[in-house]
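Lecture notes, unit on protein representations.

Consider one protein chain, 215 amino acids long.
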Amino acid sequence: MYSAFKVSLKDTSSMASINIEERVGKSGAVSYRVRVRVTERKKIIDKLEQTFDNRRDAEKWAIKAQKELTHKHDDIKRGLYRETSEFRDATVGELIREYLENPRTGSTIGRTKEYVLRALLNYDIALVTASRLTANDLIQHCEFRLAEDTQPTPQTVYHDVTYLRSVMQAGATFLKINASTRYHDEAIPQLIKLKLIARSNKRSRRPKKEEIGFL
């Protein structure tokens, strides 16, 4: 059972409204349920919803979702929007959760991969819409990771990159989520050049272009 405290954030220039509901469970744990909705003549015609463990992530996602829905319906009004029935949009965090919970993938991954993917849910990259993930998003994530107090090595951060790539591949295939690994192929050369990631075993040469896709 939850007790709820609701807060609404509205941007008068936007057609999408934001509602953030603070929920307190029996254990005392607090979560934040975000609802972003588009209404027309007092009827909800589109919405995005997500739950977060802290208020900061909830508000950041809400703003992104608000922009996404607003742009979508602006395009609809201008006749520019094309609905993709086969695929759907989701944040990187939502995609990771589906990957972990899906019997075809979640039951076969090792403990290290599961740990890394669950850890990724706590970073800003999890709030990015999967179909809009860019090379710069990945580079910024790696830079942030290396600057953490725990001082992870480039070899450790390498797992973030490779495991996320496998999730994006699954999203683009059987999970039917708009996702692409193009960002990965664009980012890898820079990540290597900037020494933000590295393989565990030492290399005697630089990876060839055709090998980059398998990193």
